[in-house]
Design brief:
By secondary structure, the protein is of the alpha+beta class. The protein contains nine helices and 35 strands. A hairpin with a 2-residue loop joins strand 31 (568-572) and strand 32.
Length: 603
């Protein structure tokens, strides 16, 4: 039923025609925004006194568009605004503001019941006007009634209906009333203008979309405290203690360096100036005297060359050429006594004696050079000899010489060891004799004979039970082979006794009193067991220690590494020096391959 008869019908037809026009729908949307408070129109429902003509409406729309920064976007087909007939016969365009997050109860059963809102309450709550909503019938009519489009209640009553679609703008530049989001996490800070229009179908958008967008702005506004690297900036003090232990790594590395090696070890020394072997030697004024010997070759050509080696730290000692010997010999017996070095016997060169042993005695004195005592006074060794051993005994003041090869093949004290040999190369001497270095004469040539005649023995003086003992260890029994015998002589009793044999038969290269702290150090040499044939492998470079008081050997000392024999040795400041030497190449006609290698051993 319509009010006011035919006039109402005309107005309804006009409204229906206007609802079909897209322009009119836009105009009514703008008027709805104006009614919601965008341009400040209405503190209640605005009643239009008369229907404006199209010209006035167009002017109003243009003015509203100028003042409004934008209209909210809608999805789908935009339904017309809700119109309600009034008691005066006019129509109102109604916009109801509903705060975002307010649950709207919608009657969708077509009965026409709905929640009614007082029009005077909408504009009074300025902080909560963030949206509006209304609901109509399913047939798209303007009244909140049944499906036939008729009004189910008083036409003068304004009905607030559930929204068909709510469009929310999260950013509104024209509204300065946005509240800080930090005051209330559940309150929407930005007011959102929405237009509610009656759709054909009633749908309800979940109100949870609006708060889901609100916290998206919150982390953007609070990005400043998030980006503040205050805790991170404390890395500087964190690095400071880290660098401190790193800088102290130098003393740490110093403390972790391996300590200086202790125990016996070898050291390389400055090489001998020339390749030479089977020379004589002795220590004088803290230097090693190296004299005579032969060069490399098959023929053994004796030399007169004499050198002094002055040791230095790190093995960087210096060799100095000094005055030559009175005669060229190899295999002499060198002995140091009272600051001088004596040379006994040796083998002459073929040009001077057809490679035969001699009984000459020479003496070297620093600053004066060599003297030929045999030529001066006629003093001689008791027999022609080479490869004899000798040592000075400061207690008696004598030099004791023992054994050696001999040219006195007719002597009762010489032996060929049962080989049947007839030349001097086959005979060794049993005799022990004494020489007075101060008087430069032989004082006794018939001391107790050594039980076993041999050449190249290691002769050394030690103290056992407080008494001087002279040892003769190892050696060669002419062509009969090597020996491991060890005999000890007591100068006071003039007696020999047998001691512990050497670890292996043969003759050591250190023959000239190699004693440090009353211990004998026996290194390098030529050795063979079980009468095996001699070869290059017979030459060794190991080192053995002999303790005369315990009468036992220690074979655990380090190896020097250069096999050889015929070396010149001497002890200076507790260090044993081993210089020169050779290896005999038996498969190359007995070639003597001499070397310049020099090394030292610190026990």
């Amino acid at each position: 039923m319509r009010e006011n008869g035919g006039r109402g019908d005309e107005r309804e037809e006009s409204v229906a025609a206007d609802e079909q026009s897209p322009g009119n729908r836009s105009r009514r949307g703008v008027l709805a925004l104006l009614a919601a408070g965008t341009v400040g129109i209405g503190l209640g429902t605005a009643a239009l006194s008369d229907t404006p003509d199209e010209g006035e409406a167009d002017s109003t729309i243009e003015a509203s568009a100028t003042e409004t920064t934008g209209r909210p976007e809608t999805t789908g087909t935009e339904p017309p605004p809700s119109t309600v007939a009034t008691s005066s016969g006019l129509f109102e365009t109604t916009a109801t503001a509903t705060p975002v997050g307010t649950q709207v109860s919608t009657d969708t059963d077509g009965a026409g019941d709905s929640e009614t809102a007082d029009p005077s309450d909408a504009p009074s709550d300025a902080g909560g006007s963030d949206g509006s909503s209304s609901a109509g019938g399913s047939d798209g009519s303007s009244s909140a009634g049944g499906s036939d489009g008729s009004s189910g209640g008083d036409p003068s009553t304004e009905t607030a209906q559930s929204p068909t679609e709510t469009t929310v703008e999260t950013e509104t530049t024209s509204e300065p009333t946005t509240q800080p989001p930090t005051e209330n996490a559940g309150q929407t800070a930005t007011p959102t203008e929405t237009s509610t229009e009656a759709p054909t179908e009633t749908t309800t958008e979940p109100p949870t979309e609006t708060p889901s967008q609100t916290p998206a702005e919150t982390p953007t506004q609070t990005s400043t405290p998030v980006e503040t690297p205050t805790p991170t900036s404390t890395a500087t003090p964190t690095q400071t203690p880290t660098e401190t232990p790193t800088q102290t790594s130098t003393p740490t590395e110093t403390s972790t360096e391996p300590p200086p090696e202790t125990g016996p070890k070898w050291r390389t020394e400055t090489s001998v100036p020339v390749e030479q072997s089977d020379a004589g030697g002795g220590v004088v004024d803290g230097k090693l005297l190296y004299f005579g010997g032969f060069d490399s070759g098959v023929e053994l050509n004796a030399r007169t060359r004499t050198f002094l080696y002055d040791p230095a730290e790190g093995g960087s000692g210096a060799w100095t050429r000094v005055e030559d010997m009175p005669k060229a010999v190899w295999g002499p017996c060198g002995v140091s006594a009272n600051g001088r070095v004596f040379s006994f016997g040796g083998v002459l060169t073929p040009a001077e004696g057809d490679n035969v042993p001699t009984d000459d005695i020479f003496v070297y004195e620093p600053g004066d050079g060599w003297r030929n005592l045999t030529a001066e006074s006629g003093v001689r060794c008791p027999y022609t000899t080479w490869a004899m051993g000798g040592v000075y005994d400061p207690e008696s003041g004598y030099i004791y010489c023992v054994g050696g090869g001999t040219g006195d093949t007719e002597s009762d004290t010489a032996t060929d060891h049962g080989t049947g040999g007839t030349t001097h190369w086959s005979f060794d001497e049993h005799r022990l004799w004494a020489f007075d270095p101060e008087a430069e004469e032989v004082v006794d040539d018939s001391l107790a004979q050594i039980p076993e005649a041999k050449r190249w023995p290691t002769v050394a003086r030690v103290v056992v039970d407080g008494r001087t003992k002279i040892h003769a260890l190892g050696g060669v029994k002419s062509t009969a082979g090597s020996t491991d015998s060890n005999f000890r002589y007591d100068p006071i009793d003039d007696e020999w006794e047998e001691a512990a044999p050497t670890p292996i038969p043969g003759h050591y290269a250190t023959t000239n009193d190699p004693v440090v702290d009353n211990q004998l150090y026996l290194s390098h040499g030529l050795f063979r067991e079980n009468d095996e044939s001699l070869s290059v492998d017979s030459f060794r470079s190991f080192c053995h220690r002999y303790d005369p008081e315990a009468d036992e050997f220690d074979t655990s000392l380090p190896d020097e590494g250069t096999p050889r024999v015929g070396c010149v040795d001497g002890v200076i400041d507790g260090r044993l020096y081993v210089t020169g030497g050779h290896v005999k190449l038996y498969d190359e006609q007995g070639y003597h391959d001499c070397t310049t290698v020099a090394s030292s051993f610190l026990p």
